[in-house]
């Protein structure tokens, strides 16, 4: 089968022929239809310090995907051939304390699809049945391909109740914008998102945020005043990983405010603990998706009319992978999707 492979410990990827995996006990072989490019994939493709420490080559990349079930291994009971499926890319041990308690997203032995084991940037991918999410209702394949990052957004946005609340989101990357769409759909009063990218801020406006603020020329405090807010934001969603964003979020929360943090910082962040303590703020880290409560929520939100398709701005065939990765790296994009049923697409948007 054709696969997008990291052949050696160096920058770049190869489109190569590799053996098609065969399903073993409890495993499902999936014919891949679409994949989404994640920031993790960019790290691996560029071979930065994190990738050099974390990745063993050769490796097939990719963990955001949708596909059709092709073959079933012995013992598979619920998944059927022909099912349209996405996959939970965190493969857990099932035996640690958290797994045994039903908190699989906190497994201490998590294996990452496309990071620690061959992934979905290929014509076929293999997953345990427990990691296969069957789409029981009609869904656009492009949207189904980005259920993984959509799940990050849903997990973060719904960690704390947002109905009637004022929500601040720092970081208008694709996950931040999807989180804004979720908060708005779930009944938030004001949804404010900040960034310094005019492209990303305009994309956020298209999904209906109250304010998309360019913090290179305005302040969050000024946005509060313009909206008539007197005490600060109720809920904060930190999606950027930038120290200044976290610091400004803490400074603009109301007393008793709650912050969910998804953004991974590349450097240490100095936190004003005096403000956290005296305002009795709650700060919670978010990683991945709750298995499988978040997945249920994702499907229900889409059934309820939430539309995240505007976030998919670029589409490429699998032979155009270099162009796809360049688009994703440029920042002038939302989600970038690769079509594994066609080598090239005439339109890349």
TrEMBL record:
Keywords: Cytoplasm, Metal-binding, NAD, Oxidoreductase, Zinc. Binds 2 Zn(2+) ions per subunit. Its main location: cytoplasm. One of its GO terms (cellular component) is cytoplasm. GO terms for molecular function: L-threonine 3-dehydrogenase activity; zinc ion binding. The keyword Translocase does not apply. NAD(+) binds at residues 175, 195, 200, 262-264, 286-287. Its cofactor is Zn(2+). Zn(2+) 1 binds at residues 38, 63-64. InterPro entries: ADH-like_C (IPR013149), ADH-like_N (IPR013154), ADH_Zn_CS (IPR002328), ER (IPR020843), GroES-like_sf (IPR011032), L-Threonine_3-DHase (IPR004627), NAD(P)-bd_dom_sf (IPR036291), Zn_alcohol_dh (IPR050129). It catalyses: L-threonine + NAD(+) = (2S)-2-amino-3-oxobutanoate + NADH + H(+). The active site is at residues 40, 43. The keyword Oxidoreductase applies. It is found in: Cytoplasm. The record marks 148 as: Important for catalytic activity for the proton relay mechanism but does not participate directly in the coordination of zinc atom. One of its GO terms (biological process) is L-threonine catabolic process to glycine. Its EC number is 1.1.1.103. It is an enzyme of class 1 (oxidoreductase). Pathway: Amino-acid degradation; L-threonine degradation via oxydo-reductase pathway; glycine from L-threonine: step 1/2. Zn(2+) 2 binds at residues 93, 96, 99, 107. Homotetramer. Catalyzes the NAD(+)-dependent oxidation of L-threonine to 2-amino-3-ketobutyrate. This is L-threonine 3-dehydrogenase. It comes from Amycolatopsis antarctica. The gene is tdh.
